[in-house]
Automatic annotation (TrEMBL):
Subcellular location, record wording: Cell outer membrane
Name of this chain's protein: Porin domain-containing protein
Domain Porin per the UniProt entry, residue ranges: 14-434
InterPro entries documented for this protein: Gram-neg_bact_OMP, Gram_neg_porin_domain, Porin_dom_sf
Primary location class: membrane
CDD domains: gram_neg_porins (cd00342)
Lineage of source species: Bacteria, Pseudomonadati, Pseudomonadota, Gammaproteobacteria, Lysobacterales
Membrane topology: Multi-pass membrane protein
Matches recorded under Gene3D superfamilies: Porin (2.40.160.10)
PROSITE patterns: PROKAR_LIPOPROTEIN
Signal peptide range: 1-24
Keyword Protease listed: no
Keyword annotations of the record: Cell outer membrane, Ion transport, Membrane, Porin, Signal, Transmembrane, Transmembrane beta strand, Transport
Length: 461
């Protein structure tokens, strides 16, 4: 049975369960709860139509089906069905059971999917399908921490206490991802948020590290203070499908209308897959004597390996009907202390042709944003946000033009969105974002700017 068929079957079962009287209101006391015996079925379906003034063709694997923001392959006007514009479509189960003495056992399993194509999200497959394809002819693509795994979102177990916090282990979003999405006015929307679509901000510099396998995560809230620590057993291959360990620390305070968090994060052997194999690299896979001979064309990708460190400051001011947001992140990339060999495997079982020396000097990427969320009426919200990413030159000889991706440059994005809610479980949204790339950050791009409106509907259960 194909992956798409497995997904369709899972969704059909979920819908049947959701409609079943045995799940409606059992033990929860509410007419629309899907909880029975302490286990809750939950999900989101988000689908719409998107237009890009400079975009790429529909993909059945990329996280939104289309490239809502300007990327290197963005080329010509494109109108298409699109998934996950405002939030990720997911289906999952979670549980919370009493253990005694005010302790609870918890677990959560979920997966992200594409309602416009009825397939699981597989960012690496969206890139691999362009292997050997000229840039102007490539379909939409994007690196992701979701690579077609059965549970490509969360898969963890843990314990929690109102006094001592929560300790969990497994595959789970990082503290940095939690913080970035909490303080982003658009909550990491894939159609409208720069930090949602380009996951490097929430992934300590690389999108694949927004969620990590084999992580031990502890969070605590006491009075004005909240925070957490996280560690990834990245070098224990039986626990994690990604290489390299990771560490994160979050310290925050909530006082009156203010909430502020500071997050430090480090990831060893971080991996970024920014594009597909060239025609020459594809040919080498079937050429005896080549260092990459024998690797599968549909499962092999080029990847940049680095050791990354980030410092992030996040803030929110709650003024009642309006919430104001501001954030800044500083990310430093250096060549890995433990280079990866050719053919190393990563998430989803994909093979990597690594670049272990991409940074002649440390690369510094700074990302900042400001925005607001305003309640126009009790059921209508307005969102506005401005994002700016700034890259310093890391070439041996500094440069500030588009001659090389190692030159300094920046990326601007502006988003405006309206979201109308019709009850607790259904809403309709529409908005537009404009993005433009400058100098080194736009090296090799086919276009320099794009205008991208999207409308959609979202159902939450």
């Amino acid at each position: 049975m194909s992956k798409a068929s497995h997904t369709l079957s899972a969704l059909a079962i979920a819908c049947a369960l959701a409609a079943s009287p045995s799940w409606a209101g059992t033990e929860s006391g509410t007419a629309d709860s899907l909880t029975m015996y302490g286990i809750t079925l939950y999900g989101t379906v988000d689908v719409g139509v998107s237009y890009q003034s400079h975009g790429s063709a529909f993909s059945d694997a990329a996280a939104t089906n289309v490239n809502n923001f300007l990327i290197k392959a963005s080329n010509k006007p494109n109108t298409s069905l699109a998934s996950n514009g405002m939030s990720l479509s997911t289906i999952g189960v979670k549980g919370r059971e009493p253990l005694g003495a005010d302790w609870w056992g918890i677990f959560q399993l979920d997966t992200g999917f594409l309602p416009a194509s009825m397939t699981l999200i597989d960012g690496l497959r969206s890139i691999a399908r362009n292997n050997g394809v000229p840039l102007a002819q490539q379909k939409s693509y994007g690196d992701s921490s979701r690579a077609g795994q059965a549970f490509n979102g969360k898969a963890f177990v843990g314990i929690e206490s109102p006094h001592y916090g929560t300790l969990s282990f497994g595959r789970q979003p990082t503290l940095l991802n939690d913080g970035v999405c909490k303080y982003d006015p658009l909550s990491c929307s894939l159609a409208f948020s720069y930090v949602g679509f380009f996951g490097a901000t929430a992934g300590t510099g690389d999108t694949e590290d927004r969620a990590l396998d084999g992580t031990l995560k502890y969070t605590l809230k006491r009075g004005l203070f909240h925070g957490g620590v996280m560690y990834q057993f990245g070098n224990a291959r039986e626990l994690s499908s990604s290489r390299g360990s990771a560490y994160q620390l979050d310290l925050g305070i909530t006082y009156g209308p203010w909430s502020v968090d500071g997050i430090w994060a480090r990831k060893h052997d971080a991996l970024a897959v920014g594009g597909s194999l060239t025609a020459g690299q594809v040919a080498a896979l079937t050429t005896p004597g080549s260092s990459t001979y024998g690797l599968p064309v549909d499962k092999t990708l080029p990847g940049t390996v680095s050791d990354n460190t980030s410092y992030t400051l996040l803030s929110e001011y709650d003024a009642g009907r309006a919430k104001l947001f501001g954030a800044y992140e500083h990310i430093r990339y250096v060549n890995p202390s433990s280079p990866l060999p050719i053919g190393s495997q990563t998430i989803g079982g994909y093979f990597i042709i690594p670049s272990n020396s991409a940074f002649p000097r440390p690369k510094i990427l700074e990302v900042a944003w400001v925005g607001l969320r305003y309640a126009v009426t009790p059921s209508l919200d307005f969102f506005g946000a401005y994002y700016r990413a700034m890259q310093g030159s890391y070439a041996k000889v500094s440069c500030s033009d588009a001659s090389s991706p190692q030159c300094s440059g920046h990326y601007n994005a502006l988003s405006l969105v309206l979201d109308q809610r019709f009850g607790r479980h259904f809403d309709v949204y529409g908005g537009v974002q404009w993005s433009k790339v400058y100098d080194g950050m736009g090296s090799g791009y086919l276009q320099r700017a794009s205008f991208d409106p999207t409308v959609g509907v979202r159902i939450v259960f």
